[in-house]
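Entry 14. Ran structure prediction on the chain below.
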Amino acid sequence: MRVLIASTPVGPLGSGVGGGVELTLHSLVYGLSGLGHDVEVVAPAGSLHVGARVHQVDGALQPSSQLTDRSAPISMPVGSVLSAMWNHIADLQQDFDVVINLAYDWLPLELTRYLQVPVVHIISMASLSDAIDTAVRDVAARLPDRLAAHTIAQARTFDTAGSTMPFRIIGSGIVTDRYDVHLSADDAPAHLGAVGRISPEKGLEDVAELSERSGWPVKVWGMMQDPDYWRRVVDEHPRAHLEYCGFLPTDQLQDAIGRCTAVLMTPKWIEAFGNVALEAMATGVPVIAYDRGGPAEIVNDGETGFVVPADDIDALVAAVERVGTIDRIICRQRVEERYSTEAFADRVESWLREVIATDARDHGLDAGSAGRIISRFPGSAMDPDRPSGTSTD
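Output, structure tokens:
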């Protein structure tokens, strides 16, 4: 396959502004390339190099949807990088078999039916915008195989009037080789960790309250998106032991996470997935997560951490007291089995194969032409080297 991935327009790759989307993009490039596909990326100027080529596009960055009211109208800044990226994709489309959109924005959804190349969407957040919800429903009605979500909890936020959106649930994945297993936590002194943008939806006030009640120190890593929020959390919890440790690249972050006794995930919104849970578990660190959104589907309660009722600080404290019962090797094994880049790429490849075949048939290609497209995929039903009678999934 020749795959073009459209990155998020909220910031350059490597800036941290894109949050989990940046890690998802890296995993897709690594995993699909490992399966033999040619993968290129379109991203805002100033992005780090990822894959065979990153098409750097200039323009004004798009405001993040989580910072706007859900009833707000769609808007783009003058000289929008989002518009410029999709103009560039339109110019490149004849060179690719499929485009994967990672932007949580109205424009790519609206353009789906106008581009000649099939465009699929990995929706990166739960429902946050009425306008984007409408665009998602329009794509679902016209091209129901083009939408994917990371988790069931995320997909359910788009259900309206009893109508379930036809999302392909694909999970996510990380490059496990980049994460070293720590068989035990640091004991000088023992501490907990919290990772993510410093922003209200991450629920750091609950982490601070846990620290106040239990005496546990907590190290915090992530992009300082909202300094006023951070100061408010610190000021309102003077007995908490919180240490902000900055935004770290993956290699440094994984080493820092691995030294934690546990990682806390206390979101106040529906997390679409929760890549932090994978990163922690890959280093052997148990995760204690609220039963809200994607993290609750990643953490196996009592096996790789604990899932506690959302907003229940007492339950959070009790879970920290039991964290020593978790086997760190099991945490790593679960990531390798279910959430490696290889496992993630296999799920995505299967989805893309089906989309391309359907698009070929919808455009009137005969069975032979459609077969020649699909036969490029190793292991596909039309691959001459594939043993007969085996499943493509």
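The longest strand covers residues 38-44. Will compare against last week's run tomorrow.
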